[in-house]
Design a protein that fits this description.
The chain has about 210 residues and is α/β, with parallel strands linked by helices. The chain is built from seven helices and seven strands, in the order ββαβααβαβαβαβα. It has a single domain, classed as Alpha-Beta Barrel (TIM Barrel). Helix 5 links the parallel strand 5 and strand 6. The longest helix has 16 residues.
Length: about 210
């Protein structure tokens, strides 16, 4: 039986694509999923807060002691000139690509527009075949309208799409007033696919979110 299909423009031998999970943390597990029939694998997520924290740590280390000499402030380029972020994730992408023949889909998890979205380019350069953009936030501001929340999703997608040429899927939660309308808007904004839905049992548990989504 021919189970081949197309996802995000990628030709897959079956529709079976394991989602982001701890299984993708080890190369042997990725190989095992390929042997078991997976046609692609979504890697565990790299979180916005990881990238922001990594960036802040680098800036702190570069500036430490520079107040001693005025000339020291010119020793290093501005942080924006650096390629920042957890290098282990990029290395894992590269190793996974060499270990298996199926597509490797990276995953970025974020909730706000910011410089972290530029890391998508580094993910593409590391060899990822596609990128799953996991956008999820819990609004706590009573004055924040649903329109602003939806616009943030679109802005994040556009920011990532401006950095990469590989396909980008958006992973969504079901909590939209008009989900069909939001799907249509994401499509027009450049999404190559939509993943339904975010894993509800991880909501409210940061540790599970870190490892699973």
């Amino acid at each position: 039986m021919d189970l081949s299909t197309t996802y995000l423009g990628l030709k897959l031998r079956t529709p079976l694509v394991p989602a982001a999970s701890p299984l993708s943390e080890e190369l042997d597990s990725i190989k095992a999923m390929e042997d078991a029939g997976a046609s692609a694998v979504v890697l565990y997520s790299l979180f916005e807060e990881q990238l922001i924290e990594d960036r802040a740590e680098l800036v702190h280390n570069l500036e430490q002691g520079t107040e001693s000499f005025a000339e020291a402030l010119t020793y290093f380029p501005e942080p924006d000139d650096f390629r920042l972020g957890p290098e282990e994730y990029l290395e894992h992408i590269s190793k996974a690509k060499k270990a298996v023949e199926i597509p490797i889909i990276a995953s970025l998890n974020g909730s706000s527009v910011g410089g972290w979205t530029k890391y998508a380019k580094a993910i593409q350069q590391a060899g990822a075949d596609a990128l799953e953009l996991n956008i999820y936030s819990i609004p706590t501001d009573m004055d924040l309208s649903s329109t602003k929340i939806e616009e943030a999703y679109l802005d994040i997608l556009k920011a990532v799409k401006s950095e990469v040429s590989i396909p980008v899927a958006v992973k969504l939660s079901p909590f939209f007033t008009n989900f069909a309308n939001m799907a249509k808007r994401l499509d027009k904004a450049g999404a190559n696919g939509l993943v339904l839905f975010n894993r509800s049992k991880t909501w409210g548990n940061p540790e599970l979110q870190r490892r699973c989504c």
